[in-house]
Each structure stands twice: as C-alpha cells, then as structure tokens.
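Quick check before the chapter quiz. The format below is the same one you will see on the exam, so make sure you can read both the input and the output lines.
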Amino acid sequence: MHNTQVRVGRLITLYILFVIIGAVLLGRLFLLMLFPRVSDTGDGRVVRVPRWQLDEEHFHLQLTSDARGWIEFQNGHRWLSRRLIGQTGGKPLSPAVVAPEIVGSIGLPDIWPSRDKVVAEQGRSGLEYTFDPILSGRRPGVTGHVVAAKVANGTAVHGLPATAFTLTPIRGKNVVTTIDESRQRLAESLLQKTGARHASIVSISLRSDDIGVLASADHESSDALRAIAPGSIFKLVTAAAALETHTYLSNARFTCRGLIRVPHVDMHCWRVHGQLSLREAIAQSCDVTFATIGIKLGRMPMLVQAQRFGILESGIAPYDGREVIANATAGAVYKQSGADLGLLANTAIGQEDVRMSPLQGAVLAATIAMGGEHHRARLVKGFTDDSGRFTPLYPDARDTVGLRACSGFTASVLRDGMWVAVHRREGTAYALHRFPIVAKTGTAELPNGHVNAWLIGYQMHEGTPVSAFSVCVADEPSWLAHKHLYQLATAWFKSL
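Here is the expected output.
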C-alpha cells in the first residue's frame, strides 16, 4: 500500500511539474502577443514582430532517457535487451545481444496510461519481464525548448532568447545477474560452431550456487531450460532411490546378459556386461541393471527421489515466489498413470515419460558433488541503484542449509560410479579422461529415430569439486548427436 502511494505521489508531482512549465511558457507567449518585441536584424534594420506571427513559436519536448534500469552481467557490463531508448549510465554496453531469451525483451505495456509507469514500455519476456517493477523508471529524462518565430520575409528575429529546460531522470534499479559474460560468450560461440540446432552448455559454481553459464543454440526457446528426455543420466536418480529406500545395498551384484524380458517389453542392453556392482553399473550405464532396480522399486521411490533432487521444478531459485524465467520448464517422471513393469523399466533408465532440462541436470550433478545437499541455482545476485549501492536478492547460499536430497554415503556411491565412468577404460565417458572431471553420460532414444545426447558432472581442482556442468545435444541422429556432444565437451573443458 505504501509503495502504491509513493508511486501515485511521484506521478502527481511529475504532472504538476509539466503543468507549471506549460503555464510559464504559455504566459510568455501571451505577454509577447500583447507587447510585440522590436529587434535588430543585424544589418542595421529594426524589425517589429507582429502579434499574428508569434504563434509560429513551437514548444518541443524530447525524451532523453526512459529511466529504466539495466540487466547486468556479473562483471557489471550492461546486458543488452531489445530496447530502443536508454542510456548506458557510463558503464560498458555489451556490443551484441547475448542469450536474448534469458535477458528478455521490452514492448508496449499491457495497460496504458498506468499509474505504475511513466513511460509506455514494459518488460515482455525473460528477466525484463520478471523484474519489470524493479527496472521501471520513476521519472524519465526530458529536455524541452522553444523555437523562436521568424518575420514575414524569413529573416530570423534576434533578441528573443530561447527557453530550455532539462528534467533529470529518476532511474529504476539495475538487476545484477550471476552470468559470467566472457564464459557465456565462449559457450555460445562453441554451440554456434557445431551447427547443432538444439544444444546447450550450463555451468554452476559449487561455492555459491551461481549459474555462470546458461547457453543455448536455440534462442527462441532456451535449450538449457527446456525439459527433454534425459536417458541414462536419470540412472543416478534410480541408484539413489535404491540405496535411500534400502532396497539394495551398495555392494549388491547384478548380472547383465544383454536382455531383460518383462510383459510387453524386451529390453536390450547396449552390450552384454556380465557381473556388475552398482558402481560399475553406473560407470558402464547398464540398462538391464537399472531396469531390474526400477521394477523392484516400483513407481513411488523414483518419483520421490526425483523430487528431492529438484527435478520436478525449474532448478532456479525463485524471486518473490515466482519463477525468475517464466518459460523455464519443470521436469517430470511420470506423465501417465499405472505401474506396469515395462513403464517402470523404461522410467528407471530415463526413457518413457521422464523429462529433465540441462539446467536440472547440472543441479543434479551439483547435489551429488556436494554430498547430497540440494540447493537451487541462482541466476540473479541482487540490485544496484544509481549510487552503486548493492542489495542482495538472496542470502549467501552456502550460509544456509540446503535440502537433504540423499545421504552423504549415497552421494559417495554415485560419485564413485561417475569417476569410474571417466577414468577407467570400461567407462562410457573414458574419451574425456584427460580432463579433471567426474561425469555421467546419457542417451535418450526419441520416437523419430533421433536421440538426445547428455553429459553431466562436475569439474575438480586439486581434489575438490568446484563447478557442476551439463552439456547436451538434442534431437539429432545418434552418430551426429554424440559427435557434437564430444566436440562441445572437449572444447569446453579445454577452455577451463
């Protein structure tokens, strides 16, 4: 209520100011009409300005600033959105639009005139939309001046001083994001070079839970925020459910003969694995092992475990109870009812109705890296005003206790399997073993014969996890998807 009163008061003040300025200028015109001025033309002639020519004076207004705050990168550079009016405020302006689907666009307001807006513009999508009340200016920047009249023969009249004024803007606040501008540009460049239509790179700092990179090949609808079939990376969730419910012990043994038969489904593994431990099944991504686990678990444990890992939400820490990015989609485990064995087997290996976004994949990897403690990722740090004063949006994430997604022991089993996946020859990600990463691969088969190729995990530095990542190439033929995935992953890890 107080904020509304303040806004109304500011609008009334602005209106009164314009009325006063207009009255002063009209009064001046009235006096000139009654008392015509005499002026020297500069060539020795004296010219009397007739009253009927004084209406040739014109009062001009020009909007110099919409007073709207800016979306900023982590380094303070202005993140360019699709706007037409605005000043950089003395800070560098990014030369090209980066991730336009994230920063968003500006357009005409839903309601105009509006008591809440002094300029006819509104955030229409992305961060510009979510934080529109914060970004909107309180008073625009305006300049005004009076153009002097001319005499009948076209000679300019001297001695009539120009009237001008300037209205300084009261700017909205700037929104400071967590995005690392240079890393984001590099990721988008790598995605463009592959030529993949749908691909993404996501990076999350494990120290702060800040999203440093949220890059997509498709800027119409963010690839990084779109929930798609995850394939075998969901086996991490299935393994966690098996251990958390004590359905299986960590030293359980499994046998893969390359095929598992269930009613209406003959599931073939991608190769015959023979005898496996749970850690080895994670590293070698054995379909038979996890289908067996899923059938024994039943429907609810996998759903509950996915919820604890944050897969059933967007993965981004909300603002004021709302999603920071409106089109960020939540994941899913089941879209259809029932608990037939075929459904359970396919769900356990990340097929059927399972959906996850690359961002959620990175959050899953971050949770495992941090010993099972789940934190939502942060996209916005806070706000700055004209004086540079910073107001944080959230408390420091690592000063707060996260949700317990799984026990520390369960997380250690998952980490062991992911380490073997990269650093042992039998692992599915061994091609990346020269990099200090711990990871899990995934391939989801699609109805059109294409696949989604995934890699999620975390980077190590001196034996400590420092950042979680997700690299994904979606909806391509299998050979091309995996080629693009390893090209992206290799180029990305080389740059770290």
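If your answer matched, good. Residues 31-56, 84-89 have pLDDT under 50 and may be disordered.
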